[in-house]
Amino acid sequence: MKHKTFFWFFLPTAMAMLIFIAAPIVSVVMQSLFLPHEAVLIQVENCGPFGCTQQTSIDQEATQALRDAAPMGRFAGLEVYFDRGHLATAEVAAAWRNSESLGAFFGELNNLPFYRAMAFTLTYTFTVTPLLIALGFFIAVGVNSVTRQLRGLLIFFSLLPMIVTPLVGSLILFWMIDARGVLGNLIQYLAADPDLSLKASTPLMWISLIIYGIWSSAPFAFVVFYAGLQTVPQDTLESAQIDGATRWQQIRYVLIPHLMPLITFVALIQLMDNFRVFEPIIGFSAQAHATSLSWIIFNDLGGETRQLSAAATTSVLTVLCVAILLTPVLVRTWRDFKGKA
Amino acid sequence: MFLKNTVAAIALTVAAGTAMADCGISEGRVSIVGNEFPAIQTVGANAMECASDSVEVSTNLTADHQTINLPGMQGNPAEYTSAIVANSSIVALMNEDVIRPLDDLIAAHGQSLKPNQIVTINGQAMAIAFMANAQHLVYRADVLEEAGVAVPTTYEEMLAAAEAIRAAGIMENPVGGPYAAGWNLAQEFNNMFLGFGGQHFEPGTANPTVNSEAGVKTLEMMKALSEYMNPDYLTHDSNGTNAEFRAGNTALMHMWGSRAATLVEAEGVPQEVVDGFAIAGPLTVGGGTTPASTLWWDGWTVAKNISDADAEATFKALLNGIDPSILSGEDVASQAVWLIDGYEPTEAAVGVFEAANSGTAPYPMLPYMGLMHTALGAELTDFMQGNESAEQALADVEAAYTAAAKENGFLQ
Amino acid sequence: MASKAQEKPLGLRILLTVFLVVWLIAAAFPFMWTLWGSFKVELDFFSISNWRDALTGPRTEFTYGHPFTGAGYAGAWIQEEFWRSVINTFIVCFFVVCISLTLGTLGGYALSRSGHNYVFWLLITALIFRALPPITLVSGYLPPFFEWNIWGYLPTAIIVLVAINQPFTLWMLHSFFQKIPKELDESAKVDGCTQFQAFRHVIIPVMWPGVITTGLFSFLLAYNDFAVTAMLLSESNRTMIPAVAAFLGTTQTEGNVMFAVAAVVSATVPLFIMVMFFQRQIVSGLTAGAVKG
User: Fold this and answer.
1) A150 touches chain C (CB under 8 A)
2) For burial by CB atoms within 10 Å, which of A1, A36, A195, B378 has the most?
3) How large is the angle between the packed helices C10-37 and A113-144, nearest 10 degrees?
4) Which CATH number fits domain B134-294+354-407: 3.40.50.300, 2.40.50.200, 3.50.50.60, 3.40.190.10?
């Protein structure tokens, strides 16, 4: 395709992305490098419905003068990236020097918000993604093999976990797995332990989140693979059958290679989405047991004083982590791309 | 522009449908952002009555108001001419200097206001409060009677009562409380910490002082209480705690006054819970005299970056919104503990009144309190789960707070 | 196709059926439980005292004299005027799907038909764009949107949703277009068509499987979005999910969980109708439209 034709085809989508994604990314990066000005504090008397108290407040005029002098804020460089709320280099170094064993070091590390979030996020990403791809694939193969009349119904019910909004879907499951809920009771019965509570234990909470993650994202993989299965060349399949390939061999040597670009695609999207896991943590009120980078951003922005620089820094770190995470898949895409061109 | 006109036109037609009030506004634009609970809805609806052909009044009442009020008031002219805030959230608007002093407007039009409604900061009136809130004791009188214990007035007595109820086999987890990790847990810490006479900061500076004797005692008391709570207590916010109470699983809990009024009004609450439901003031702790709770007010502000005419219109419209006549409306008196003239406390307001009368401290209105609250909410869970010592947890809180306060320019 | 060789042995058939049945139960059970529970009062729905209460509804019977009640539905639809949010949601979904598919098919087609290196880098950039958490993007939008007076309106939310969803749409359509043989439009161009004519007359008729699947995801994204719609729409323009979230209440204020549950259940009905309506396209249309080879 000629450059000029390409340009006109691509222009509308490029404009949308430049204005609404690229521009905010630039401002986020700037925000992570510049900090708000130092506040000039004064002692004041505040009065209200409950009497008067001596309290500290910001001297607006003095602070405004600082702001006018440098509208961008204080330049901090990468300072925020390395402070305790983020990469915490000083704290990690101290933990490395002071801990006697590797276990103690990881214990210290787990006390720092960024690393604690990473521990859960990476576990979640690397268990949920492969499992949901496998589950989605088997559902697609399964649904593809039933009679046509049934398929519409099957597709609808298979989509339900994805259709019910995560906000409410996770809330409903949260109540179902409560020690007094229907699933919680079932699990207590199966484990023969009447005091078992999924919500009070960190490992069980992680498992619940992971199962929720697989359950809610498998329909996505299913739909993509199902659509892909409709385009499997029938003659290849037939000739494989004539050659006496078993059902498993047909899947292994015909279906999977045919679906490979879609599997790569689903892996890319799901690695990224799972790395940014957020809604289940809120829905399950799981933050005592599991946090993620997206949750840290939410927490920084959700307080009474919004921590814009901290949130921007965590966002940039998220993007960098996603880029690192996706490198193997991207290298593969690059090879495919060069192979075809 | 087209959209804006349409919205205005809709606002006008809506207003035209209701009773028109004469608020003495000749012209101007009024746009209010605030939380969405019923009391604020009432204020907003009454302010809307001031709309006329030349006065545009609109409200945007949503739970996300805290995220949008600041950006919505930073523009010039500001999108919102008024934000309805609480004593915790006014700080964010003060820090960015987007609200104006109201002294002139009060002198000119505010004769109907009671002096204690006016919130002054450094001598300047910055907000008009119209309702109050506080956490206090909610209990089951029938269960306490059955267990043979008196209504507790201190947390130590609460622990003893809980033990008595458990020992009598009446309830397994008699204590409730919004201990959900995050904002709620931090708020419970603040309550207890102030009850123990703790100070969050060195006076006059932003240096944290939570890692103190009072801090450790606070955490130990919270841990002791949690032994009598449902094992899932770290996931129970006030919705979850109320659900436990309604189901008859808890007998003693510390609950928001704004949630107490409707606690047993929900559908299907068992009769014994409805009959046994009772309210008392907040508890003290550790032999202290200051109750382990905080006082809150909700009030309205006026934006800085708007014309004086719009500011005056906003002030008058909101005065109409909190006019004493609104109390005659159906259910309005029970929607909140109103601070406006002519309010007769309902039974559900006892707890909040008791809190105010017994010298409970207001929630600290400090520029950096929000950062401390966030740090507490995130770092205390390790201690509550028994993964680390109280000292370590408090040291973590201070470290997390210090990092955030440095980023925001409160500490060097 | 139903040749002897394709017929499955009994064991495999049983295995397959069991697998599908187990999956269907796992997928649908929470929803069915919610559907049943939406006709109960809150205490029964959460059934803290005994999990069987959610099935039998003793508290509902205590309140209404009957184990089922439509109070949640009446409250959500009549008292809280949930239908306004439903209308807003469908406006948003319709435009998001149409606009993102239009932009996405053009862009995705171009990406799949150009072998230049920049195509790869454009795809990677789009992917990196997608990595930014939506919550950060949205908090960055607030100041300029207020400044330009476009905050709170449906078109703003639609454009933002389209843009945020573009990387995904591009990637998905790109991989579908790659499976349409290049020879199809190449030969059309040899016959004297411009690139756009080739796209219009040759590609559009065969691209529907990918477009419908992508459209389905765009629809679900717009339909389920919370981060963008909650922050960018004013209360009067609210879509369904923020409205449902508002029913749930906050720490200091009482919500009405049953309104939320009833709203969620009723919000699923149009989706059921939609999937049933499109099932022909999703099921057989895909195969018919697909290219052999």
Assistant:
1) no
2) B378
3) 120
4) 3.40.190.10
